[in-house]
Write a structure and sequence with these properties.
The protein is an alpha/beta fold and 279 residues long. The chain folds into 2 domains: 130 residues, Probable inorganic polyphosphate/atp-NAD kinase, domain 1 (Rossmann fold), CATH 3.40.50.10330; 133 residues, Probable inorganic polyphosphate/atp-NAD kinase, domain 2 (Tumour Suppressor Smad4), CATH 2.60.200.30. Helices cover 20% and strands 40% of the residues. Strands 1, 2, 3, 4, 5, 6, 7, 8, 10, 11, 15 and 18 form a 12-stranded mixed β-sheet that branches. Strands 14-13-12-9-16-17 form a 6-stranded antiparallel β-sheet, with no helix packed on it. Strand 10 and strand 11 form a beta hairpin. The longest helix has 15 residues.
Amino acid sequence: MRLGIVIHGHRPDAMAAAHHVVAQLASCGAQVLVEDEVLAAFASGSVTSLNAPDARADVILSLGGDGTLLRGAQYALSWDAALLGVNLGRVGFLAEGEADALPKLLDKVIRGDYETERRAVLSVQMNGQSWYAINDVVMSRGGYARLITVTALVDGELAGHYIADGLVVATPTGSTGYSLSAGGPIISPKVDCMVLTPICAHSLQHRPTVVQGSAQIRLLLGSDAPQSACLQVDGQTYAQLDDGAVVEISRADRTLQLIRTSDQPFFNLVREKLTEWTR
């Protein structure tokens, strides 16, 4: 087995957990890979680079919070690997367990005693560049001091013309993230759809809109006046946009595999994690 570890670089407990993982896997002959940024923290020969051109992993282990897991998801998508999230952060909505459960979770992964839950992924295209989103795509004003104008087309039909701080396009997985904070609905991951959620729209009429999962979505930044915005994919800023910019969003041709070692009823998780978030 080849296991890649993605670590929250600013949490000592994440690094300590990674060292325990390397030690646990040493006895079973598994190959362990880590990102270049932390490679030097491990004994020579105990790990290899996750960023090498010929690198490949069967399982990606995320040690951190939701942001670390989303970073690990990009590796998992590249190799169609399964993703195991261990939460060391605040919420850990997609994680399979907490830090104290890591040895048992890892033992189950080594023995193959797990199932995978597949989650829909978005494909994002702009000016020849492309990205994958597990949670959401956001066109927002960023540091621009004024509201921006965003037009949304769904399968070529006008869905909305928003004067707002921005617009979120979220998967069901991402419906409990930024979209929820902006007033969007909680959507079961079993539903095949996407949701368009305006951010602080300057209108009493614009509301979140749920569309079919196969929809082709086009976002256009208004060109009637000079304005700027930023494009964020799963919380990471990938591009600065000028007026007239066009972003295409659709369902990707691949899905994310989340490792599940036990049943996690979705709405129980919602009650537990979202209540914890507000404490």
